[in-house]
Amino acid sequence: MPLPKAELHLHIEGTLEPELAFELAARNGVELPYTDTEALREAYRFEDLQSFLNLYYELMAVLRTERDFADLADAYLARAAAQGVRHAEIFFDPQAHLARGVGMGTVVDGLWRALGRSEEVHGVSTRLILCFLRDESAESALETLDAAKPYLDRITGVGLDSAEVGHPPAKFREVYEAAAALGLRRVAHAGEEGPPEYITEALDVLGVERVDHGLRCMEDPALVERLARERIPLTLCPLSNVRLRTVDVLAEHPLPAMLDAGLLCTVNSDDPAYFGGYAGDNFDAVRTSLGLSEERLRELARNSFVASFLEDDEERRAR
Ligand code: ES4
Ligand code: ZN
């Protein structure tokens, strides 16, 4: 039996497996620039975050209807459940869809078809987190939050993703203030490729409760001390870090040092269709390559519930 765990860093568009991409392409009459799933998998050799994002945005062209988003989320939830995931806080990137003429309603209603019955069907509770693309303008983020207003009953929080370097968190101060005023929870990617200063800015300017990745905090001992003292959760994604070459090899991942420093770390999958595995695969990989003890692995699973947006009583029931 896999350890019961919560997945806190998961881009739903990053769960698009090649087989489903081709199925949706055929269903929607979309031409993909790859002959078959094998040719597509060949393209999964990334140099850095941007080279991955290029493919990630390209393949989204196959997602067009509510049914497509429902099928995508349902396939993810089934895989996650099989790997011990009991709760999933799921990112989505509305701007990438709005730009292609796919409306906010199509995305949220489609995802909700699967999420809304996930506890019953898969035994996985869910939350939805709307991410702003940081390489788009601050105005576009504000417009996106506005477009989401009719759907806020199904959206728990906001996040910040896409190309990090050159797009510091402070660019999004206004939209995060507006999100907070609407009662939304706040997280942001920071310190994946960007410097430790972006982590501090996400905390102090955007008011985030949780940092996605946060890996590069290790370059700043004072920041590590602060994150540990304030119990700020970090949602680490070990297989993603290797595939995007943030870390050379898994055996050199700083996770053990981060745990030793007292950081509230969690292990997550990011974009599992692209990076070689789902939440359980990430746990297995760190168990094997980093030699973490069973006690450390249980700590990581426990942290995932502590760091989640579940209420205390829900949290106890989930784990
Ligand atoms: C992402 Cl790995 C990663 N980093 C930043 N933004 C993203 N969007 C999807 N995956
Ligand atoms: Zn991510």
TrEMBL record:
First-level EC class:
hydrolase
The superkingdom listed in its UniProt entry is: Bacteria
* GO terms of molecular function: adenine deaminase activity; zinc ion binding
Free-text comment on the cofactor: Binds 1 zinc ion per subunit.
A Pfam family recorded for this sequence: A_deaminase
Function of this protein? Catalyzes the hydrolytic deamination of adenine to hypoxanthine. Plays an important role in the purine salvage pathway and in nitrogen catabolism.
Q: Which PANTHER family match?
A: ADENINE DEAMINASE
What the record says about family reads: Belongs to the metallo-dependent hydrolases superfamily. Adenosine and AMP deaminases family. Adenine deaminase type 2 subfamily.
Q: What is this protein called?
A: Adenine deaminase
Which species? Streptomyces humidus
